[in-house]
Structure formats: structure tokens, C-alpha cells
Amino acid sequence: MSGLVMPALDEKVMARRDEIIAALRAIVPNNGLGEGVVDSTNAMRVFESDALTAYRQLPLVVVLPETVEQVSQVLRYCYENSIRVVPRGAGTSLSGGSLPLGDAVLLVMSRFNRILQVDYPNRVAVVQPGVTNLGITKAVEHEGFYYAPDPSSQIACSIGGNVAENSGGVHCLKYGLTANNVLGLEVVLISGEVLRIGGKHLDSEAYDMLGLMTGSEGLLGVVTEVTVRILQKPEVARAVLIGFPSSEQAGVCVAEIIGAGIIPGGMEMMDRPAIKAAEDFVKVGYPLDVEALLIVELDGPPVEVDYLIEMVEAIAQRNGSTTCQLSRSEEERNAFWAGRKAAFPAVGRISPDYLCMDGTIPRKALPEVLAGMREMSVRHGLRVANVFHAGDGNLHPLILYDANIPGELQAAEEFGADILRLCVKVGGVLTGEHGVGVEKRDLMPEMFNEVDLDHQMRVKCAFDEKHLLNPGKVFPQLRRCAELGRMHVHRGALAFPDLPRF
Questions:
Q1: DSSP 293-313
Q2: What DSSP element (H or E) covers 140?
Q3: Which domains, and CATH codes, for the chain?
Q4: 51-82 confidence digits (pLDDT tens)
Q5: Which pTM does this prediction carry?
Q6: C-alpha distances in angstroms, 21 versus 16, 183, 212, 226, 350?
Q7: Using CA atoms, how far apart are residues 411 and 417, in angstroms rounded to an integer?
Q8: Rounded to whole angstroms, what are the CA distances from 267 to 299, 322, 394?
Q9: Is the dihedral of CA 466, 470, 474, 478 positive or negative?
Q10: Per the record, a Pfam family (predicted)?
């Protein structure tokens, strides 16, 4: 697995594999849907990686529960027997968040795939975590509603995984990330305890446990039910394709649109390599003679949309735009977005392998970061195609490489690390929506000091003191919870000596 270091295998657990499998089969037996426990090497191959395919590892065993009670019993058994557990949804994680461990149970939630309730008066839907992101919209669109967060993988990614990574999408600028659209959760802790957090009401009382769980990457608990906000479709939605002779000009245009007080439903940007790859793949009419392409969508009442489109076009012209194409129908608007949403698979057609990075920067830093990436591309000897959630500064550079050429994977990883370091340097953060997982784990000290990481670890310890849930992810150094209570004495001087000690 390249240079990635994961927790050492627990040989005692490995020696008890047959016993563990038998115990899990008693909890999750076979049924009409298939095996409840998968333990053969060939059958487990489909679970050995997620969308960060550079890293692969067979799990100890795969378990596919169907009920909350089964999830609770599996986790309780693993807790009592000190067996690690890796939760997994659809396996679309781009940060290695659901990468299995050789001594861990892989808990696959794909059979939790039912929509339990749609409550139109309260504008919510209650769904199981294995329901796909797009599946929620499909279930309510006949009544004129939809679910706003829309990652590019929405046709496949599960809502439970969206909660784990706090996923966004092309429309998150105006309508928010998963955290802004989830109202309630049912979560099973590693001890087997079932918690209900939030509900159909807008705000939960006391601590913001909902905010804590959303984006926790499977480190705190396993989600078994999600209550999401559904929205009425806007009266009108129109998209504008705007081409620029340079990425810097497009970046300035983005900043000026937001600075003018315009909040588009979505605002995406692609550079020349990504534009060409997407157009060759989906053929929706993207201009091929530009260096950067903005897709700006305005939605709302027709009069407001018309007015905002005029403002956006004027701002684009001031910044040197060379093309401007307005969608003339709903089909054409969807086609504009189809090209953007197909950008990742499209790039896969022009390179044997690629790493999809994920960092977020202040919008004003976009020209500086783009220039920095061009310099890095030359230095590392690898091409890069760029796709951005331009409105909120969430970058998705696609680093192209060939894993069959010795050294190219390592070069791609170093290139990606340099991009993320630059994001932090300009005032940004390591991730926008893909999570930390294993991909960015060892870069956490670039953004957080030891005190920061210790406090994050204390939260982990409050939920999982044995570190059994998704170990090896997010935290750059494994530490026992007891170590966090240590007292630091510097040169014989006790910190804050006037405070009472217990």
C-alpha cells in the first residue's frame, strides 16, 4: 500500500478468526438477500478498496446486517472482544475512509436501503443509510421536492456515507452541505447502545451532537437512520456557461460575483484539460477554445433570475470572458451539469490512474493556488486537471499518473500533499467534503498543533475508548486514551501550580 502505514495487526484476533466468523454468523445469518457474513478471499475482493483505489486491503471478514438490532449486537460483540470495526457504505470514499483492515470486521450497511417516511408538511424524509443520495430526490420529485446536496457520485454514494464525510456537491454554495440538510440521526455506538439525535424539528437541545456526528468519518458510531430536509424545487433554474482565456480571470470573476451579493444555486469551474475530457465524454457543447469554464446557475422567481443573469454576464464581460451561453431549456441546463458531474470518469479516459484531491481555500486565493499548481505540475512531472466548487473555494485537482510506471504513484502522492500544504498556507483547510481518511491523515499536523489533535482525540475517546471504530484514519498518530491525561512538567515547574489537583 505505497508508503501508507496502518495499525499493526492484532495477532490474537487473527488467530481467532474462525471463532469470530461463527459468532457473527449467529448474529447475522444468511437469508433471501444472500450471505449475512462473507469470509472467502474471492468474495471479499469487491470490498478490498474504496474509490481511493491506490490502497487495497482484504478485511478480516465482511458482515452485511439488515436490522438495527443486528448492528447493535455485532458492535457489542466486537467491543466485548476488542475487535476492530470499519463501517462502510457504498464504498465511494475518495479519501480511503472505508479502507478495510486485515484484523477488522468490515460492517457494510448497503442493505439498509429503504426510505422509511416522507413527510411533506414538515418537508423531511426519514431514510436508511444505504439509500443513495439521488434516490431521495427520485422518491420526492413527483411532488416537486428534492434533496439539495448533490455530490458528483450521487447516483451511487449512500446517504450514510454523505453523513460520515459531510458531503457537498455542485449546489452546496446556496443550499449547504450535508450538515445543513440533516435534522436527525439514529446512531449505534461501539458498545451497542442505540442513540437518537435530533429529529424533524429544526434545532436539537443541549450539545450539538448532530454537528459532531456529521463528518465524523465513522470514528464515533454507525449511522442506521437519517432524517433529511427536503426542499421545494425553485420556480426557475437557468445555467450560464462562461469561457475565459485564463483560469486567473475566471477566479476573479467568481470572487466578484459573490462580492456583488449574488449567491448562485451552483458555481463550478473547470480548466482546459477537464473541459476537453468532459466534452469528449458527454458531448454537451462545452467550448474547447478557452482555458477556463464557469457554470453559474441562478434559481428562484423568473424576474429575479433574469435580473441576476444580466448582472453575472456583465461581471463576466468585465473580466474578459470570451463566450457566454445561457441554457434555453431544462434539458440543456441538465446537460451543462451532466458534463461537470461526469468530469471525474471523463478524466479516467485520458489517464490510466488519477488521484482526486480535495482542499478548500479562500476564493481570493484561487489565482495564487492555480499558479502554484502549475509550478508543481512541472516540478513533479505529472499533469493535473482541475475541477472546482468555485463558489466556496473547494478544489478538486485530478493528478494524472500511471501506477505501472515505477515511482509515479509516489510522485502523485507528493504532488497532492504539496497542493494541500499550499491550501493551508493561503488560509484554507485540508478537506472540503471528501474527509481526511488515510489520504490526508499524515498531513493533519500541517493544520493542527498537538494540543488541537489531543482535544480531537478526547472526543474520540469519549465515544470509543478502545479505539475500535475505524482505527488508522484521521489521526496521524495512534495514542491510548489514558495518555491524554498525562501531566506535562517542564524543567521541574508544574503548570498552573495554584490550581487544586485531584
A1: EEEEEEEESHHHHHHHHHHHH
A2: helix 133-140
A3: 11-108 (3.30.43.10), 115-232 (3.30.465.10), 236-345 (3.30.70.2190), 351-442 (3.30.70.2740)
A4: 998 899 999 999 999 999 999 999 999 999 99
A5: 0.91
A6: 9, 36, 32, 29, 43
A7: 10
A8: 12, 18, 11
A9: positive
A10: FAD_binding_4
